Input
Amino acid sequence: DDTLVESWQPPTAPMVEKLSRLLGHVPVAILSAASFERIEKSFLTALQGHPHAKRLYVFSYAAAVAHMLENNQWRPQYEIKHTPEERKRIIEAIRVSVKETGIIEENSKYQWEILEREPKVVFTAHGLNVTQAEKKAWDTDLSKRTKLKKALEQKIPEFEIAIGGSTTIDITPKGMNKAYGALWLAKQLGVKPEEMLFVGDAIYPGGNDYVVMEAGVDTRQVQNPTETELLIDTLLEAFEKK
Output
């Protein structure tokens, strides 16, 4: 969201086409807070038949789950999940913290939600049925989610808590974040972290992409998918000149 696609929207045809071309030159990984099923629907159906599809790595739920293509099937390489008891504790902490911090106005026309998945629990301030403009206008300076993040860190420090997207906070098992996925990939490919390039929209303290930069991976900040496409264009121009 906000790197390859607009939040909760399908990818554009040019984005899929450019990722396909990039895959022809180098391994490509999608590290996302989204579910594997959503990534599969958006990208993998189109890329699975690529002659270099085995170069594609998919990290879902903020890298709590990793998939690779084996025998024409997307198979988990590792999968770290919350227990039911952990999810219950996280959900209760979110409910108490939202009330304590007052980040949601009492008479707000939007209903905040908790999205519960086995590898990840998500707080989303507006739910899913709001416009992109409304999402982006809610917490432009990150102050609301930073306040909520600090409250959650006091209550459930044993989990990974990160700001993502425009209205969300992601909570995953401790140590399960995008840096974990990036370092796993570096080992898998036999390269150093600084030899990889990570592109993300949340490379700021507290953002769910920031840990990748801290892990020593070369990073580029983007504001939206259009900027990502321009960066891919630059890479493709360099590769295709060779």
In short: The first helix runs from residue 13 to 23. DSSP finds eight helices and ten strands in the chain. Strands lie at 28-31, 56-60, 65-70, 73-79, 113-116, 121-124, 159-164, 168-173, 197-200, 218-221.
